[in-house]
Amino acid sequence: MTFIDPVCGMEITKEEQAGELEYKGIIYHFCNLSCLEKFKADPEKYLKKVDYFIPANMSAKKIGKTETITISIIGMTCASCVRTIEKAVGNLPGVASVNINFASEKATIRFDKKITSLEDIKRRIREVGYEIREEHSQGIDKMTQEWQKAKVRLMLIWFLTAPLIVLMFMHMVLKIHIQQMDLIMLIFGVAAVFIPGFNTIKAGINSIRNKAASMDVLIGLGTISALITGFLRIINVPIENYAGIAGMIMAFHLTGRYIETKAKGKTSQAIKRLIELGAKSVTIIVDGKKKNIPIEQLKVGDIMLVHPGEKIPTDGEIISGVSNIDESMITGEPIPVRKQKGDIVIGATINLQGLLQIKATKVGKDTFLAQIIKLVEECQSTKVPIQEFADKITNRFVPIIILIAILTFFGWLFLTPYLRGGLTWVSHFLPWLNPTLSPISLAIFASISVLVIACPCALGLATPTALMVGSGIAAERGILFRSGEAIQSLKDVKAIIFDKTGTLTKGKTEVTDIIVVNGVSEKELLQYAASLEFGSEHPLANAIITTAKNKNISIKAPSNFQSISGKGIIGIVDNVKVICGNKLLFDENNVSYQVLISEIYKLESEAKTVILIAFNNNLVGLLAIADKLKDDSQLAINKLKQRGLHLVMLTGDDEKTALAISQKIGIEHTIANVLPQDKQKIIKQLQKSYGLVAMVGDGINDAPALTQADVGIAIGSGTDIAIEASDVILISGNLLDIVTAIKISQATFQKIKQNLFWAFFYNIIAIPMAIVGFMHPLIAEIAMALSSLNVTTNSLQLRRINLN
Asked: Residue 526, class by beta-carbon neighbours within 10 Å (0-12 exposed, 13-18 middle, 19+ buried)?
């Protein structure tokens, strides 16, 4: 039985493991102590990469498979709500991780459905006072409905507060005091707070019941405290009536929440645009007749009919027709791609010309588009490391503010003679201040201001809004960040390590030279080499097999096939022992190749890979295979060098071949003859030399190296985007996207720092002003709403960055 090392992704058995570690009730297995220590230092970094684990309460023979889901949550008002839900759901058995993005109102949860069901998770969320919104198309409708409800509440509360505004204007400006004014203000204030503002009060009560403290608690305490003064005034207690202010505080609060929600909606436009790319209906052929059905009813195996100009409904294989396909939504390239029978097509791409019949191969959540949406949503639900500091503050923010408000109340109550002087002087500049009020009125005035001006919302929105916009911009350009940590780390990398085949080169190799010795014909050499390579999955094998087929050479089945990683292959073809590989493999088998040594050096100097061939331990010739550089490799390398980055090529090729490529492309540091299992060790050495490093590879053979690197960048190819070992995926495989990804990383992190600065600056300035009585509660509430809006709109400015 095998397990997956959560750090390097390697499969190991119980006997092979170097150690195990229990984390959150789950036992993880490690292939070496280095991986164990890395996981111990930062387990959350690797949890997203783990598919298999063993629950501690199960026998070692049972394997639990985690499932990742994204849930939209209704009712979160600040970062404290996030903490409440994360804690509640995270404590459920079988839940491996919970990440919530306050800005997008989405939770990404990894759990073992054999231990905890999705319904258990939803039930727990509802128990702590929040609701669930359905996803995707239905979710958009529900979000629209929520905005409409918010708009109705907004109109209602301003209808109720309009009389309060008139009465307060008459009293404060015109000095007119009508009969029963206090009662009227109390009635309208209570109506405003408890009818359109009921959800806020209810959410505050739920927070207190769950032993949590949210923004709603502060607003609830502030408005109810103000309403209490209205009741006291009616029974002739000598106190200022702030009941009208309570209604207006709630009105400004709901207005700010509405505007903030609309602004947050703009930050998630990338997800909406991706969802809208998908087709809504599809024409299928049933018993020779056309039938139009909703896309949700489409099944794998259905035959779709796609006319020119229509979107291809889902991923599939062309079974009839020829056309040019616009795949710019995948690759970013405007040039259409020619497709014909047998070719794979991607859902949401556009059929430009011919009539196509396409067999559906993937539907629903398995499609390419669904995978992109899932990856973007998961990235947006992760947390940037810099957010940890803000989280520590927001977790304690509301209780501290309540304590400050209580101390402010008693401070003003007992120290009014000392504080009134300053208030009198400032009242010449701030007309809303009235230093002649009684001590208790001044105490209530200041403490209410403290409650409603404190803003954990701005702190909670600072990083997720920027992360949503940044990751959305990247996704629109075919760059998928798997986590917020990758966005933060990429801007700081000092060196980038490149794999060669399929990364710097096209990965489409071809045989360029055939040299034979010892009387063997070219046809015989190709036949035996292609037959042996038929058992291999290496890209070089495909080149040899393709060449043999093009020459109509028959291929035979090999036996006793052995693949020696990084060296070559050995097997039996027609009772002949055939060896195909590099010089290392021939040295190990004591096969001399000196007769061809000059030809070998010449071919390697031309950046060609040499495959030596031996029959029964006797050299019979060689094949030279070349892989062309990608068109954008040279330009990408030049731009990365201009940014001052150290560039390294790490390859299993011979040194001469590797040097020929690196010299041609402009990479100064080349490490060749590296076995796949040794790449991880070399990455460690380069980290010691340079600091933070990024590794660019194909995401398959390079998985351990991609994981070891501080940022793993995988080259995607068409539908192959689910590369678990990477942190960043370049869907089109265009190396210039690395430069774009770095620019997005830098711009996003800059916005995060700006947002955190303004959020902290606002609270540091505003709260002391409220404490000393300089801030009117209404102005305090307006300022609080504007601070959250400022953070969100500042994040939206990311869309204006120049990525050229």
From this structure: buried
Nearest to 515 by CA among 408, 607, 624: 624
In 10 A of CB 460, how many CB atoms?
30
Please answer whether residues 468 and 101 qualify as being in contact, where contact means their C-beta atoms are separated by less than 8 angstroms. yes
Residue type at 531 in one-letter notation: S
CA distances from 794 to 104, 380, 395, 464, 753 (A): 16, 17, 24, 12, 11
CA atoms within a 13 Å half-sphere pointing along the CA-CB vector of 236: 0
Query: What torsion, rounded to 10 degrees, do the Cα atoms 10, 13, 16, 17 define?
Result: 70
Asked whether the beta carbons of 305 and 290 are under 8 A apart, the reply is: yes
Contact 368, 480 (CB under 8 A): no
Burial class (CB in 10 A: 0-12, 13-18, 19+), 528: buried
- Four-residue CA torsion sign, 15, 16, 22, 28: negative
Give the integer Cα–Cα distance in Å for 413 and 130: 38
Question: pTM for this one?
Answer: 0.71
Tokens of 529: 């080499």
Please, is 149 exposed, middle or buried when counting C-beta atoms within 10 Å of its C-beta (0-12, 13-18, 19+)? Answer: exposed
- Angstrom distance (rounded) from CA 359 to CA 369: 17
Closest Cα partner for 631 from 559, 736, 542?
Answer: 736
Q: Which residues contact 85 (CB under 8 A, 6 or more apart)?
A: 73, 76, 98, 100, 107, 125, 128, 130
User: From CA 593, how far away is CA 249, in angstroms rounded?
Assistant: 87
What pLDDT is recorded for position 590?
93
Q: Which amino acid would we find at residue 57?
A: N
What's at 558, amino acid-wise?
P
Report the sign of the C-alpha dihedral through residues 448, 454, 456, 462, in that order. Answer: positive
Rounded-to-integer distance, Cα 314 and Cα 365, Å: 11
Positions marked active-site: 499
What contacts 174, CB < 8 A, 6 or more positions away? Answer: none
The predicted-structure confidence for 746-789, as pLDDT tens digits, reads as follows 999 999 889 888 888 888 888 999 999 888 888 887 887 788 78
φ, ψ at 96 (rounded to 5°) = -85, -40
User: Which conformational region is residue 590 in: left (phi greater than 0), alpha (psi within -120 to 50 degrees), or beta?
Assistant: left
Return d(Cα 481, Cα 478) in angstroms, integer: 10
pLDDT band at 175 (very low <50, low <70, confident <90, very high): low
Tokens of 585: 């493999």
800 vs 612: CA distance, rounded Å: 55
Nearest Cα residue to 105 out of 390, 464, 386 = 464
Average pLDDT taken over every residue of the chain: 82
pLDDT tens digits for range 480-520: 888 888 888 899 999 999 988 778 887 777 898 999 998 89
How far is residue 660 CA from its own chain's centroid? Answer: 38
**Residue 413 is encoded by which pair of tokens?**
């109550």
DSSP code for 297: G
Q: Report the alpha-carbon distance of residue 730 to residue 333 in Å, rounded.
A: 13
What sign does the CA torsion over 652, 657, 663, 669 have? positive
- Predicted confidence at residue 114, as pLDDT, reads 80
Q: Which helix (H) or strand (E) holds 369?
A: helix 368-381
pLDDT tens for 111-162 read 888 888 889 999 999 888 888 876 544 444 555 666 778 888 889 999 999 8
Structure confidence at residue 442 (pLDDT): 92
CA distances for 665 relative to 502, 529, 719, angstroms: 15, 31, 28
At 451-485, the pLDDT tens digits run: 888 767 777 778 888 888 888 888 888 888 888 88
**Interval 360-403: pLDDT, tens:** 998 888 888 887 777 777 776 667 777 777 767 777 888 888 99
**Distance from C-alpha of 630 to C-alpha of 701, rounded to nearest angstrom:** 20
Which residues share a beta bridge with 55?
26
Structure tokens at 646: 């150290």
Structural Rg of the chain based on CA atoms: 33
